[in-house]
Amino acid sequence: MNPVLKKATDHFRDKLDEKMSSFYVKSWDTTVYFKKVNSFKEESRVLTLHQQNKTTEALVESLIVKCRNEDGSKMFQPADRVVLLNEVDPAVIIEVAAAINGEQDDYQFDVEQTVKN
Prior knowledge:
The protein is mainly α. 55% of the residues lie in helices and 9% in strands.
């Protein structure tokens, strides 16, 4: 393997092996765990939705991709997308998305504007 590519992949694996971050979502009486980094493959749908100005869908997709249970398993599945979009408090989705994206992205979400969309 290319020595620079080896260093790059080792660096990424080290970041993936870091302890997950977590925060408590009072409205859901649940602790959400998340990794500080994700692969481009995992992030691709979120990025695509942002580029298409589909902020609401991107927020929900970030929850599906990033939210974890304490054991590291995914908290939400793709099949949960419709329920998250239509039957969950948008303000809480934004709160969770801001927390999980805050450590890795510079995205700033305007809660009122996003809820209106």
